[in-house]
Amino acid sequence: MDGNGRWATQRGWPRLVGHRRGAERVRQIVRACPDLGVRWLTVYAFSTENWKRSTEEVLGLMKIFARYIEREAGRLSAEGVRMRFIGDRTRLEPRLQALMAGIEARTMANTRLNFTVAINYGGRDELARAAQALARKVAEGRLSPDEVNADELSRALDTADIPDPDLVIRTSGETRVSNFLLWQAAYAEYEFTQTLWPDFTPEELASILDRVAVRDRRFGAVSA
Ligand code: IPE
Ligand code: MG
C-alpha cells in the first residue's frame, strides 16, 4: 500500500489524512475480496524502515492500527475473516500488541478470508529471525545442520501457516520490491499500478485479477 503521503500532500493535507483514507480503503478491499475469489490477502502496513519517519507520523500510524482493530473486530468476526499479523511485534506498544493478539484469537476459526497485516515487517529481518530460530534449535541439539533446508526455513518464517503469494501488487508507481515477502514471493506475479493507495478500488483489484488469471505460471517447469 504505497502513496498515502503523496495523496494527502497533493491536496495540501497532512500525511496522516492520507493514512486514514488508506485505512478506509483496506476496509473496503477486505470486504470485496471473498466475492472476487480471493481467500488470502496480505497488506504491508508498516515496514522495519518506517521507524525513520517523524514521531508524529509513526505514532499516528500506530493509532490508526489500534483503532482499525478495535472498530473492525465485530465485523471481521461476523464476516468470517481471520485476521493475523506478521513482523516483529516485540517493538510495538504493549497495548497494540494486546489488541493484535486479541483479534487473532477471536477470529482464529474463521475461514472465508485470511487477512494478514504486516506491521514492523521486513523480509530481511524476518529471514534473520528465522535463521536465529534455526540456529537455536541446532545449538540445542533439536535439529541437525543437514536438516536445514528450504522447507524448514519456510516453517521458521512469520508466514509459516500462510501460503506463498500468487500475486504482489504495489500501488503509486514505484517499481521496487522494498523488502516485502522476499522469500515467499519467489514465484509471484508482480503488478505495479500508478494509482495511489487511497484511490485503489475493488474494481481496479478485480481488473488486475482478471489480467493475471490468464497468465501461465510454470514454477520453472515447462507448459503442459
Ligand atoms: C504507504 O504510503 C503507507 C505506509 C507506509 C504506512 P506512504 O506513506 O509510503 O506514502 P508516500 O510514498 O509518501 O506517498
Ligand atoms: Mg511510500
Keywords:
224 residues; alpha/beta; Undecaprenyl pyrophosphate synthetase; globular; binds 3-methylbut-3-enyl trihydrogen diphosphate; binds magnesium ion
What does this structure look like?
The chain has a single domain, classed as Decaprenyl diphosphate synthase-like (Undecaprenyl pyrophosphate synthetase). The protein has 7 helices and 5 strands, in the order ααβαβαβααββα. It starts with a helix and ends in an 11-residue tail after the last helix. Helix content is 43%, strand content 11%. The strands form 2 sheets. A 3-stranded parallel sheet has the order 1-3-2. A two-stranded parallel ribbon has the order 4-5. The protein is globular. The chain is an alpha/beta fold and 224 residues long.
Q: Helices, strands, pairings?
A:
Blueprint: H1 4-9, H2 15-32, E1 40-44, H3 55-78, E2 81-86, H4 94-106, E3 113-118, H5 123-139, H6 150-155, E4 167-170, E5 189-192, H7 202-213
Parallel strand pairs: 1-3, 2-3, 4-5
The protein binds 3-methylbut-3-enyl trihydrogen diphosphate and magnesium ion (MG).
Summarize the structure.
This protein has 224 residues and is of the alpha/beta class.
Radius of gyration: 18 Å
Domain module tally: 1
Name the ligand types. 3-methylbut-3-enyl trihydrogen diphosphate, magnesium ion
Number of helices: 7
CATH classification class: Alpha Beta
Question: Overall 3D geometry?
Answer: globular
Q: Strand tally, please? A: 5
**CA(first)-CA(last) distance:** 35 Å
Strand order, largest beta sheet: 1-3-2
